[in-house]
Amino acid sequence: MRKVKYFLRGRLFPCALLFALIVTGGVLLALWLPRLLAPVAVLERVLSFAVALYVVQSREIPAAKIAKLVLLFLPWTGAILCLVFRPSNEDDRGHGTRGCARGACGGQTSAARKTEYFPVGRAMYERLLSDLKGAEKHIFLEYYIIARGKFWGDVLDVLEERAAAGVDVRIIYDGFGCACTLPEGYPKELAGRGIRAAVYKPPRVGRGFSRRDHSKLAVIDDVAYVGGINIADEYIGEKLRFGHWKDSAIRIEGGISAFSERFLRTWYALRPSDGIPELPKSAQGDIPFSPLFDGDGARDIPRLFLLLFARARERLYLFTPYLSLPRTLLDALAAAAGAGADVRIMIPHIPDKRAVFFLTRAYARLLLEKGVGVREYTPGFLHAKSAAVDGEYALVSSYNLDFRSLYVQAECGALVKDPALAEALERDFLAAWEQGTDVKKANAFVRAAGRIAMLFAPLT
């Protein structure tokens, strides 16, 4: 009931209501008015043509443009959907100026003193609380979802205590991701506890919904956490959703200045009056890693994945909850498998979104035909977004292997050259693989429907 209350009282409800009314009106126009009034049909075609011109000149990737042009064959509704899911033209300085993958994409790498892999959310939760309690200078949290419950309650108690002790505590959460988990005006409630908060693009009528802050990032003095784990009870096993919730994250100690900079640039874009404080440079270690960030414009994260797939000589293991890849990455996975590497991908068995899961299975079957191993995590929903290459490289991030993560949303993560970390990730993957089941075979109708669905994959 709490989620329903937050939804009805929040900004998402009027947006959803308006969207439903517009789509309903479009469907009615498509069904009835053209039969009664020919000029209405002409007007619809003029609108579709105008939207087509808008789509062609937009900054979206070609695959997304093609999908939207196909969508325009739907009378009225197609044009409306294209406008609703348009790319945002708003100032996105917080995520658009910092580059994509330092080191991995040609920039500066960093070096950690220690790394630690968490194969489940409960393990990260316990370590995170310990670090929060020991914070002396600053705590920066940036999450797609924060939900009231045990996890957030325990974190909030520590944040309030640390803020009272003089620690600089700041939180960024996504307005769409938290629309049903936090009440409207929650930053004011946090301010009463001495905690500053900013909301990334809260839903409102007239604003595009495509670009979200999908990051999972915690920076605590000289330590950073990245991965797939949001601050909600299902991630630590306190709440059962879709069976066992399998996720992953890493803790990086030392060399984490880039993560602090990323958070503060986003913060400044949302709350420019606060300014950006000067932070001491994080002390380096001897474990090389590349902080991964999305860029706005030239998207180099897909190129990073392409290089990572091409690097695999012996084995490449991948966790992902959603699977819908551009042709270049599909071919790279197939090429690695064809060259003799053991390429395996783990996807969920119990879906959280059935339509997206249908698409994931369609891509899984395509990869199976190309020699890539794919299994489903039988105990429940797999939300981890991580990879291990040849027992040498480990990648843990918020990036799903789909168009939205690779090209649209704000994400973060780390690519670490650390055999011990890669070995821990591989052990976790192989244990999950043993618990997996083969992808369900499909009849001719399901296969054909899957290929049609792939046309619209860039929009999911």
Question: What's the structural blueprint in terms of helices and strands?
Answer:
Elements: H1 2-9, H2 12-31, H3 33-36, H4 38-57, H5 62-71, H6 77-84, H7 93-96, E1 110-112, E2 114-118, H8 121-133, E3 138-143, H9 150-164, E4 168-174, H10 186-191, E5 196-200, E6 216-220, E7 223-227, E8 244-246, E9 249-253, H11 257-270, E10 287-293, H12 301-311, E11 315-319, E12 323-324, H13 327-338, E13 342-348, H14 354-369, E14 373-377, E15 380-382, E16 386-389, E17 393-397, E18 401-402, H15 403-408, E19 412-417, H16 419-434, E20 436-438, H17 444-455
Parallel strand pairs: 3-4, 4-5, 8-15, 11-13, 12-18, 13-14
Antiparallel strand pairs: 1-10, 2-9, 3-6, 6-7, 7-9, 10-19, 11-16, 14-20, 16-17, 17-19
Helix pairs in contact: 2-6, 4-6, 8-9, 12-13, 14-17
Strand residue percentage: 15-25%
* CATH homologous superfamily (4th level) name of the largest domain: Endonuclease Chain A
The CATH topology of the largest domain, please? Endonuclease, Chain A
Measured between the Cα atoms of the first and last residue, the distance is: 28 Å
The counted number of beta strands is 20
Total domain units: 3
* The level-1 CATH class of the largest domain: Alpha Beta
Q: Quick one: overall form?
A: globular
Secondary structural class: alpha/beta
Which sequence of strands runs across the widest sheet? 1-10-19-17-16-11-13-14-20
Mean pLDDT: 85
Q: If you compute it from the alpha carbons, what radius of gyration comes out, rounded to the nearest whole angstrom?
A: 22 Å
Sheet having the most strands: 9 strands, mixed
Which residue ranges are poorly predicted, with pLDDT under 50 across at least 5 consecutive positions?
89-107
CATH-level-2 architecture of the largest domain: 2-Layer Sandwich
Please work out how many helical segments DSSP would assign.
17
